[in-house]
Amino acid sequence: MRDTYHIYLTAEERRVVINSLIELRNDLISRGKYTDIIDELIIKFTKAKVKKIKIKEV
Predict the structure, then answer these.
(1) Which of 14, 26, 28, 56 could lock onto 33 through a cystine, CB 3.0 to 4.6 A?
(2) DSSP label at residue 48
(3) pTM, whole model, 2 decimals?
(4) pLDDT of residue 38
(5) Which of 43, 25, 42 is nearest to 34 (CA)?
(6) 28 and 14 in contact (C-beta within 8 Å)?
(7) Sign of the alpha-carbon torsion through 51, 10, 28, 3
(8) Cα–Cα distance measured from residue 1 to residue 7, given in angstroms and rounded to the nearest whole number
(9) What are phi and psi of 34, to 5 degrees?
(10) Which domain of life is it from (predicted)?
(11) What is the rounded distance in angstroms from the CA atom of residue 27 to the CA atom of residue 49?
(12) What total of structural domains would you count in the chain?
């Protein structure tokens, strides 16, 4: 059985995650290692639906 996880990020956090994945990918390329998994994650983050939610303050 495959678990599904949801993560809620602001636009700034999303940008930081994508930039970090790109930096990691570039580092792996410079070391001559495979980047298949990182490539898949970058694609998933860039194609993920953006959903606006309201946050209640307590």
Answers:
(1) 28
(2) S
(3) 0.78
(4) 96
(5) 25
(6) no
(7) negative
(8) 20
(9) -75, 145
(10) Bacteria
(11) 28
(12) 1
7-29 burial, b at 16+ Cβ within 10 Å, e below that, comes to eeeeeeebeeeeeebeeebeebe
Six-digit token string for 12: 């700034």
Residue numbers of the domain that contains 9: 1-58
Token couple for 56: 């209640």
Count the residues in the chain. Answer: 58
Q: Is-contact 18 26, C-beta < 8 A?
A: no
- Please name the residue that has the structure tokens 């930096």: 23
The answer on pLDDT for 58 being more than 80 is no
What is the C-alpha separation between 42 and 18, in angstroms, rounded?
A: 6
10-26 residue pLDDT tens: 889 999 999 999 999 99
Give the distance between the most distant pair of CA atoms in the chain.
49
